[in-house]
Amino acid sequence: FPDVTPRDARALRELRALPMAMRPRLLPRLLGLLAMGATLAADQANKLWLIFIFGIEARQPVRLAPFFDVIYAKNPGISYSLLPAQNGTERMGLLILTLAATAFLGFWLWRARTKSAGLGLGLIVGGALGNAYDRLSYGFVADFYHFHIGSFSWYVFNLADVAIVAGVALLIYDSWSPAKKTRETGRVAGQ
To answer: Which of 66, 129, 139, 169 has its CA 20 to 30 A from that of 176?
Structure first.
């Protein structure tokens, strides 16, 4: 533009530079929010399809492999059916506990500095919200996937649980990441 003054040009350059300066903080957040939304959507779509379209309750078990079945389990508690919530008060307590943990994880996500931490936290929050939605809507969490070998039976889980486990694995990876340790060492040495 011919009538742009040097002062205007400098201001424009500073504006263009701003998103680049903010990118390291925004990218983990954005990745986490996308992972959270995708996890929640995939989990709920999978549950709705299995329950209402496929009709898993009437067709179970569906054997996919000698060691892997699709079934329909109604889990009133948390992982491994711990803390079973049998009445409305207990379900509300579990829901409040889940939402409090999700709020804490959301705050952590907002402060995440690495892509792996943002992605991991997004997967955990999305999975927790998927299971919380079930607990609020149905009074239980719908689980479907069952690994077993002979008499050994692994617990029944859903896509939200898979996302939570993957998210925890990413957080462990992030905490052991050599790049992160190098940055922290440099920060301590530079103080």
So the answer is: 129
Per the listing, tokens 């995440």 go with 112
Question: Could you tell me if 155 and 79 are in contact, meaning their C-beta atoms sit under 8 angstroms apart?
Answer: yes
Cα 161 versus chain centre, distance: 9
Q: Whole-prediction pTM value?
A: 0.79
Q: What is the pLDDT of residue 67?
A: 94
CB 87 within 8 A of CB 93: no
Peptide bond into 61 cis (omega under 30): yes
DSSP codes joined into one string, 95-132: HHHHHHHHHHHHHHHHH--SHHHHHHHHHHHHHHHHHH
Helices (H), the chain: 6-48, 56-59, 88-111, 115-138, 159-176, 178-190
- Residue 17: pLDDT band with limits 50, 70, 90: low
In this predicted structure, which of 15-24, 34-43, 115-124, 128-137 has the lowest mean pLDDT? 15-24
Instruction: Report, as residue numbers or ranges, the catalytic residues.
Output: 143, 161
Edge-first strand order for the sheet with 62-65 is: 62-65, 68-75, 141-149, 152-157
The CA distance from 9 to 164, in Å, is: 48
Give the containing element (helix H, strand E) for 148: strand 141-149
